[in-house]
DNA sequence: GTTGACTCTCACATTAGTGTTAGGGTTTAG
DNA sequence: CTAAACCCTAACACTAATGTGAGAGTCAAC
């Protein structure tokens, strides 16, 4: 059991409790290759302590609008993979992330503008829905 | 055929061409109850000319982030259903729509802020979680 | 040595809009 | 009459993350 559970590692349930992420999601992250783990000879997953921050980071990236396929391509340092040091790729990855967010904001601003336009048209037109052909 | 195709109506393919919305989507809108049509005795759907603006409006509402279930509950005037006049409900519906968009923008601004914060911190956070058990 | 708490894999459900295909009627033009 | 071009219903696929449950193995404590 000592060689089955490498020292300094935690089980999936433990990781789930500590990170606040469901066991199901963690398994999914691991299956999708955005999270690594050791496997005991009983098949159990054993995660390093760093995985706690990793899964949180993954959920943060998801909340940014990325899917797991995107995240998998990110530099390891950005995913906080253990052993990864700060790397140059992080900056450009974060910059494109920032760009993506800005783009989403722009899209929403455009929708807002269109809505306001529609609203002002409704007030002036009020009943000109008899056109079109 | 003249009584099968009521005058002033168009077929689904025609509506698709004129509105730029796929036949499949139009059928789906009709099935979901956000779009009305007549049925010929051959089972064909016949839409009024106003449906052209209606399906465009539906897609606009979808682009605002609403689903068809939401849209179905909207006042008819907001969905531009034929015969509907301007009504008071439209304004409040549009206002909550506006509020929803503003909320989404706020969320994104927060994410952007968090990202910028992360970017400025990212050197120091790799080894801040050494608490075991 | 048995029970309870874990873990594993596999697989289907959900949400929503849209694409696609199959199999079969209908209309229209030549 | 026939062929092209429409239309119909029904049903499954896709995307993506997560929930849920079955059936089975494992571990720890009493």
From TrEMBL, chains A, B:
GO terms for molecular function: DNA binding; DNA-binding transcription factor activity. Residues 9-77 form the HTH merR-type domain. Signal peptide: none annotated. Keywords: DNA-binding, Repressor, Transcription, Transcription regulation. InterPro entries: DNA-bd_dom_put_sf, MerR-type_HTH_dom, MerR_fam. SMART domains: HTH_MERR (SM00422). It comes from the Bacteria. This is DNA-binding transcriptional MerR regulator. It comes from Marinomonas foliarum. The lineage of its organism: Bacteria, Pseudomonadati, Pseudomonadota, Gammaproteobacteria, Oceanospirillales.
